[in-house]
Amino acid sequence: MAASRIVIENCAIATVDANDTEYTSGYVVVADNLIESVGAGRAPAALENVVRRVDGTGHLLTPGLVNTHHHFYQWITRGLATDHNLFNWLVALYPTWARIDEPMARAAAQGSLAMMARGGVTTAMDHHYVYPRGSGDLSGAIIGAVAETGVRFTLARGSMDRGQSAGGLPPDFAVESLEGALAATEATVEKHHDASFGAMTQIAVAPCSPFSVSTELMRQAAELARRKGVRLHTHGSETVEEEQFCKELFGMGPTDYFESTGWLGSDVWMAHCVHMNDSDIAAFGRTGTGVAHCPSSNARLAAGIARVPDMLRAGVPVGLGVDGTASNESGELHTELRNALLINRLGAHREAALTVRQALRLGTYGGAQVLGRADQLGSIEPGKLADLVLWKLDTLAHSSIADPVIALVLGAAAPVTLSLVNGRTVVEDNHLTTVDEDAVARSTRSQARRLARIAAAG
Partners of 127 in the beta sheet? Predict the structure, then answer.
């Protein structure tokens, strides 16, 4: 059967390939779910079975954005504990989060996904680690919400087994046993992980953090992930308090602790990595361990400025993350392009920290690297998956910025005229085509109120 083709032309294109190839006016041809060709000028005239032509005049075409760290469930606890550092914020919110159930998880995932997808995310990721007893099939609820939205997805099946009675932060009734966490994680991998090229759903093994997880769970989770051939994810080196916690409890800093438990490697990525010394960064570079940089959340929780320029120079794969929307209420990844550049310029490297094109690379190809899918996603090249975003840059907001990449990264948030995932339209004229945004808003509002009532009742 002949391939169905979509042609996008007359637009600026930032391919984010190895040479950062760009076209001031070019085209992309999509054949079914793959990029068939990309080039300057108009698309070839003799193409067969073209089902749609898109005039991209006044637009910039980029690879779809790739989110490498998020907590969907936090969508229904936004706007709380707004003046806290990480540990105090967690202590304030864990009692509420510990009462989440399946309907809440599904609604929260719908809200998080809708906001990201409408803002150019084509590959989403959720690190879900709160599995209260009797809460239902939370992983299934999240995966179901993603399937409806139509974006590509990695569920990092998280876990916690260190409750308050063992020196951790979460309430005891919100954590799993070591055996239960490992068994549930393995079952999730077996049921939902798709290792094939073009997979829409993949699973990673993801104990939450050193201060909520036992050493034995860290070790056995790494062994489980490698036995199953999936990636590993956790939080790392987010705050000064975490570093002190690790030194007091384990007698070493976070990076040395991770290495001692088998948690450095090219199949691992960590969220945040704010407090890293030269030795830590070198270890990540040497082992190919990836980083999910979450600049807005790090600022919201006063965690600090991650040394992203130094990581990149050391060869560390770095992508961008929204992080949970209880610490980044906007819930949009495209704002992180701008914030990554601006916040890193407040660090030691100042104006030489990042360029606008490096920021775009973090949000696209860098994210694909971190998720282990750089051969499939993150750049506009023939043979890669057709995950593309067409940004509208011909309005007042960007009218006097000549360079479209600068307009996208440093200008106001650009509307999304078209977003394709796997060659399928997910956003059209800045609105989702796959779900009813108003219905999602009503559902998330209802579940947020329900959770607040349950938490208040204790």
Answer: 156
